[in-house]
Specification:
Length: 680
């Protein structure tokens, strides 16, 4: 579509990748099915009619906003011939297609020096745990020098290690130790913004008209009598209030989509883009295998930074998002960064170490040659399926993998809502997603990370305290994550069935997002208890408590006082206890990852859903090309005993949560991985 106007029909908008994502998102948020748009009567409505009908919900300017965003992306915007292909679809799939990733939140993983803060030597001391589990690539959440207004997501120096985490030498040792054990290592690249303490920002505000003034989004204006505005536009910060703060010293407003100390970089400035590419090259030379790129879809902002549409703001909670969730130059900036930063140039010296290859039986081989392109994993909040494809399609030369967050909350829900997640939505989400991808697309599969409460708790609520249900569901989720087509990202603790914490006071919380939200609710008149009750369902702290290595108050995390205390004291849910129990969640993960490595059909095989309309049974086949065997994977999505659908293929159980038999029924959250028997 080259031209969108009032007479354009809804189906044409829905046929445009961003149009489809936007409409799907609105429907999801309103808790409606997208089947609605495919109804022929609705599909044929003209945009001006839709705008008129939707006015009570979406307001006047909604259609216009949509049209503006659509014009920036899509089929017309085909890339220049792939500058640095990520190669899926090629004869040899890239390593990450088969890999299991594991996210470490270093502050809470292992503390080597007793200061209560997890550190790099702590991670190194636990590398054997990760290698035994079968991890192929470790992602470390931020470890760069930072004032920690947002736990390292506010970087002060991209080439130095945060003092409490250790030194560059410690990181070198960690990289070498991971490679030696057959694991790659990626770091977190937080370059939508820097800390306000970064020298670039200091220089920018010391002399806004000087060479660094244009590194950020600085705007002249008046602060108003009480210093509050009006700011340059109505964009909101994700951590509360306006996205602008007045810097008296510079007589400028400065944009911060996150905390007031996280200053958005101006990616339209080529010098900023060159600096970022240089940082990536610097870390690659030290042996880092790639990066996870923080909120990377936010880097390109619409020129002039116009006000956000009020209706979109009200619906999504944050005015302004349509001007930067998929900004106008996003694709070209990513391609440039891929080429200039992530791609090895001819003659580039080899890094100090590379990963040792791992054979299908898990044993280690020789070090692999350096990767031609270091992996780019995009953290991309707000993108739908089509935009995910535009950002990570293998021919597009942009990212390799992206996180699509729509799986994390049920229809019409946001993270702060107190509700039980229905796993039939998770099934629907993945079947819908998989039906829309082709051989050029890749999915990242994840349920937990440091920004979300634990999926186990979202599904089970208070019943996550029941060890039987907790164990069964943890194995079921592992089965889904490790055998659907896609690249799994485990988050620390998932392998031992970590659940949310029973926080009882705001004093338990450390996260700037929750603390700001708490303060806002209090200012609006909520009681302390009420405000706490309203933030706990979504608090990021749940996933940030120390790793439970062994029983006892310290959980083996630290000999000192942890920076944040976990409140859980259940028996049986530590690494040490589970390592000793053959039926544990930990050993289930190990066995399943081992099976995945040995049986290529589980990673590369075709996919066919069975009983796709069932809300209780999730079953699928991974089909092997040629002579290999097919696999049948089955999960009971409920806490009840269910009947298996009829007419399933005959199959032999290889790994299961409750035993080696397949009967007519499945136990609550039972999961079974079976080899399909040959013959009719
Ligand atoms: C996403 C990160 O995962 C989150 O922890 C952080 O607060 C924001 N980006 C801002 O950097
Ligand atoms: Mg420490």
């Amino acid at each position: 579509m080259t031209h969108v106007e009032a007479r354009t029909r809804l189906k044409e908008i829905y046929g445009h990748p961003v149009g489809r994502d936007a409409i799907d998102k609105v429907l999801l948020q309103l808790g409606r099915s997208s089947r609605w748009v495919r109804n022929p009567v609705v599909a044929n409505l003209r945009l001006d009619t839709v705008a008129r009908l939707a006015r009570p919900v979406l307001g006047e300017a909604f259609a216009q906003s949509l049209v503006t965003v659509l014009a920036d992306h899509g089929p017309d915007d085909d890339p220049t011939p792939d500058p640095a292909p990520s190669g899926h679809g090629a004869a040899q799939p890239p390593w990450w297609r088969r890999a299991v990733f594991y996210q470490v939140y270093p502050r809470s993983f292992a503390d080597s020096d007793g200061d209560g803060i997890g550190d790099l030597r702590g991670v190194t001391s636990r590398l054997d745990h990760l290698a035994d589990l079968g991890v192929d690539c470790v992602w470390l959440s931020p470890i760069f020098d930072s004032p920690n207004e947002d736990m390292g997501y506010d970087v002060r120096d991209y080439r130095a290690i945060m003092a409490e985490m250790g030194t560059l030498a410690d990181l070198d040792a960690l990289i070498a130790g991971a490679h030696e054990r057959g694991m790659r290592i990626i770091l977190d690249l937080v370059v939508n913004h820097t800390s306000a303490e970064h020298p670039w920002f200091r220089a920018a505000i010391a002399d806004p008209d000087g060479p660094y003034g244009d590194y950020y989004h600085l705007r002249p204006g008046a602060p108003g009598e009480d210093g509050s505005g009006p700011p340059p536009n109505n964009w909101a910060s994700f951590f509360g209030g306006s996205a602008w703060r007045w810097i008296p010293q510079a007589q400028r407003w400065a944009l911060h989509l996150f905390a007031p100390g996280q200053m958005d970089l101006n990616w339209d400035n080529p010098r900023v883009r060159a600096e970022v590419a240089e940082i990536v090259r610097w870390w690659r030379a030290r042996g880092v295998d790639g990066f996870r790129l923080d909120v990377i879809n936010y880097i390109s902002k619409r020129g002039g930074l116009p006000d956000g549409n009020e209706a979109i703001g009200a619906l999504m909670g944050f005015p302004g998002i349509e001007h930067y969730f998929f900004g106008p130059r996003l694709h070209s900036y990513l391609r440039e960064l891929r080429t200039a930063g992530f791609t090895r140039s001819p003659g580039e010296p080899a890094p100090p170490s590379t990963v040792r290859t791992r054979r299908p039986d898990g044993t280690l081989g020789d070090p692999a040659p350096p990767d031609p392109v270091a992996i780019m994993v995009g953290e991309t909040p707000g993108v739908g399926v089509e935009m995910s494809r535009l950002l990570s399609g293998s021919r597009r030369g942009e990212l390799d993998l992206v996180f699509n967050f729509d799986v994390l909350e049920g229809p019409g829900k946001v993270r702060w809502d107190d509700y039980r997640y229905d796993l039939s939505y998770l099934k629907r989400f993945y079947l819908g997603y998989l039906a829309r991808v082709g051989p050029d697309d890749a999915l990242a599969l994840f349920f937990d990370n440091h920004d979300n409460p634990r999926m186990l708790s979202k599904v089970l609520g208070a019943r996550a305290g029941d060890p039987v249900l907790r164990t069964a569901l943890a194995k079921a989720l592992a089965t889904i994550q490790l055998t659907l087509p896609g690249t799994p990202f485990l988050f620390q603790g998932q392998e031992i069935a970590a659940v949310d914490q029973d926080f009882t006071s705001v004093a338990d919380l450390r996260d700037v997002e929750s603390l700001n939200r708490f303060a806002e609710l209090r200012a609006e008149g909520s009681t302390e208890a009420d405000a706490l009750a309203r933030i706990l369902p979504g608090a990021r702290d749940h996933a940030r408590v120390p790793m439970r290595w062994e029983p006892g108050p310290s959980t083996g995390f630290s000999t000192g006082t942890p920076w944040q205390a976990g409140r859980e004291d259940s028996t049986g849910f530590t690494v040490a206890e589970q390592a000793a129990d053959p039926g544990s969640v930990l050993n289930f993960h190990r066995d399943l990852i081992g099976l995945r490595r040995a049986e290529p059909a589980l990673t590369d095989g075709g996919f066919r859903a069975l009983a796709s309309r069932s809300r209780t049974y999730f079953g699928w086949l991974r089909t092997a090309p040629g002579s290999g065997s097919d696999w049948l994977i089955e999960v009971n999505l409920t806490d009840r005993t269910i009947r298996r659908p009829r007419a399933l293929p005959r199959a032999q159980v290889v790994l299961g949560s409750t035993g080696m038999e397949r009967s007519a029924t499945m136990a609550p959250y039972e999961c079974v991985i079976s080899r399909v028997s040959p013959g009719p």
